[in-house]
Write a structure and sequence with these properties.
Number of strands: 5
Strand order of the largest sheet: 3-2-1-4-5
Distance between the termini: 66 Å
Number of helices: 25
Largest sheet: 5 strands, parallel
Order of helices and strands: HHHHHHHHHHHHHHHHHHHHHEHEHEHEHE
Strand content: 5-15%
Shape: elongated
Length: 614
């Protein structure tokens, strides 16, 4: 891998990198782990369970393969962490699989990677919130009927924290993350010193889902268990997607956070699987595998409820991973003209507010669609992230091959093969349960990216972006000022107009009914007496319209005087209090909209503040 050339500044002793003015609004390795790893951390609550539920179809004999399958997943996790660590180093601007695919696999493939990440991030928010609330309603069944409103309340809370900046969200979530990880590690260590379960009270009275008749444990069943357990790997890519959110040196801090995430996640997954085999745990209806392991290791006491509560909180808050990764991805897409440029804007606290708000809006729509039910959303989840994994690994194979580093290329090739197989298996297994929606949504999203890109291309062509424009030249300027009465606002508008243009004309629209005719004649008499040195032009109109007569007059001027630059100055009174705007007739807005829509005249809206002292 090539390194950047050493600059003269780098060679001087005692010199330092220029200070990052927004450093206090960016992440360290620790806060980055808290802000961007909640999705992956929370997956230990359902990853081992997904493996056990598949293997339970083969009876007790099938459950004996829980640890080998988990070790295979942990091996894939190690490959992914190593790969994304290299992605961070090679693509420090963030973007993860999108950045890799854009560089090595082509534009269309990069859009597939971006679309899969967008879908996964949005679905992660909805699944995380509903799963956390499901844990709450399991403990307090009386809240079940209000689960949708609770989901929306949690979403509002997470969104509000992220609008304050990613550092504030990390600080808010670092304690729940530490409590959860600490509780799981204590559970594992305590369980390793047990010869038998301390308690089975949590599963007592619940029906087992273990198959009565053991079946052969074939390759297909193991492959399906492996693919289902790989749901525990969702979120591994989030740190690589959000590298710019870290403090300088951003790439180094992000790589540390990625390694720490892989280590913690691997230890927890393997540790829980060892306990499943040690205690001979069997899955039962209505009780999670993690709850049974807690019961067996720590007993049915206060520690049991601490673990359950920490799991509930972390599941609900794991939506924060999407709020940290998706806005950065949208910024990169905006830079490449695939989404509106507004997603590239940053607020003062280093937060992409438009990305955060739109993620919340779409996630809220999914929550309403599902009624706050996790099972409706789970079949759609994790497919997108496997596609992103596969494309990122494939791109890194090409990256290393170009540099003739065959060992790293082989490692990434193995990862691409494993994640590609997992993507196919998960999609096939969950297709009839709703995964077909993702299969349809992904190409639709890619087509939307392409449509936005074409629109920006046409706009660039019209604006001549990339070409040297003509030198500026002076044109005769004519300023039109719409008026309806003689007031101080009229005087202010004409004063501004004569300062802007070579010629100024006031225009007033006259309708044929007697009342309007009388009002227009009175205005013309007062205008003649006032004599401001600006002519007043009457624009007759048969219809009760304000914008059309003015736009027709502007078009006529452009035809008769093509070398004249026409400006329409629209005077508007701005009241002192916001509620007083309800009292206005909005004539200025109507005129400005009509002129902007139907002509190429310059629009200038003069705000006259009524509360200001002159």
């Amino acid at each position: 891998m090539t390194t950047a050339p050493t600059t003269e500044k780098d060679a001087l002793p005692g010199t330092e990198e220029p200070p990052d003015t927004g450093a206090r609004h960016k992440l360290t390795a620790v806060t980055g782990l808290a802000a961007l790893s909640l999705d992956a951390m929370a997956s230990v609550a359902y990853g081992p369970e997904a493996i056990v539920l598949v293997l339970a179809a083969a009876g007790g004999h099938g459950l004996g393969f829980t640890l080998p399958v988990t070790l295979a997943i942990a091996g894939l996790l190690a490959v992914l962490v190593a790969s994304y660590r290299q992605v961070i180093a090679a693509f420090p601007d963030g973007g993860g699989s999108y950045a890799v695919a854009r560089t090595h696999l082509g534009r269309r493939t990069s859009l597939v990677a971006a679309g899969s990440l967008v879908l996964d991030y949005v679905l992660n928010v909805a699944v995380a919130v509903t799963a956390g609330v499901a844990a709450l309603t399991s403990a307090f069944p009386g809240l079940y009927d209000d689960r949708l409103w609770i989901c929306l309340a949690v979403l509002v809370l997470v969104t509000a924290v992220n609008l304050r900046g990613i550092v504030d969200s990390a600080r808010a979530f670092i304690v729940p993350t530490a409590v959860f990880v600490g509780a799981i590690l204590v559970l594992i260590v305590a369980g390793l010193f047990r010869d038998a379960p301390v308690s089975t009270e949590a599963s007592a009275g619940h029906a087992s889902v273990l198959a009565d008749n053991a079946t052969t444990v074939g390759a297909l069943l193991l492959l399906k268990a492996f693919a289902s357990g790989c749901s525990a790997l969702t979120g591994v890519e989030a740190i690589a997607n959000a590298v710019p959110s870290f403090r300088a040196p951003a790439a180094r801090r992000a790589m540390r956070a990625e390694v720490a995430l892989g280590a913690l996640l691997g230890v927890m997954l393997i540790g829980l699987s060892v306990l499943i085999s040690r205690f001979g745990l069997q899955p039962v209806e209505g009780v999670t595998v993690l709850a049974q392991l807690t019961d067996a290791s720590l007993g049915h006491n206060a520690a049991f409820y601490v673990v359950q509560f920490a799991t509930m909180v972390l599941l609900a808050l794991s939506a924060n991973t999407s709020f940290g990764g998706l806005p950065v991805l949208l910024k990169l897409l905006a830079r490449d003209n695939y989404v509106p440029h507004v997603f590239g804007l940053k607020a003062d606290r280093q937060v992409h507010r438009h990305g955060v708000v739109w993620l919340a809006v779409v996630s809220a729509a999914l929550l309403v669609f599902s009624g706050g039910d996790t099972n409706t959303l789970v079949p759609l989840f994790a497919i997108g992230v496997f596609i992103g994994f596969t494309l990122a690994q494939t791109g890194m194979v090409l990256h290393w091959r170009a540099r003739r580093q065959w060992g790293k290329a082989l490692l990434n090739g193995l990862g691409a093969l494993l994640t590609g197989v997992s993507a196919v298996v998960v999609t096939a297994a969950k297709f009839h349960d709703g995964a077909w929606l993702v299969v349809i949504a992904l190409p639709v999203l890619v087509l939307a990216f392409e449509a936005v890109h074409r629109a920006y291309g046409r706009l660039d062509e019209r604006l001549g972006i990339g070409r040297i424009p003509e030198a500026p030249h002076r044109e005769r300027s004519l300023v039109l000022v719409p008026v309806s009465s003689l007031t101080r606002l009229t005087s202010e508008a004409l004063t501004a107009a004569v300062s802007l243009g070579d010629e100024v004309r006031a225009v007033t629209v006259c309708h044929p009914d007697p009342e309007d005719l009388a009002q227009t004649e009175a205005l013309e008499r007062d205008w003649a007496l006032w004599n401001p040195g600006v002519p007043l032009v009457r624009l007759p109109s048969e219809r009760r319209s304000l914008g059309r007569p003015i736009t027709a007059y502007v078009r006529a001027l452009r035809e008769t005087e093509p070398d004249t630059r026409v400006t329409v100055l629209v005077p508007e009174a701005e009241p002192e209090h916001l509620w007083q705007r309800l009292l206005q007739n909005q004539r200025g807005a109507v005129v400005a909209h009509a002129v902007r829509r139907d002509t190429d005249a310059v629009i200038c809206r003069l705000r006259f503040r009524l509360g200001a002292r002159c």
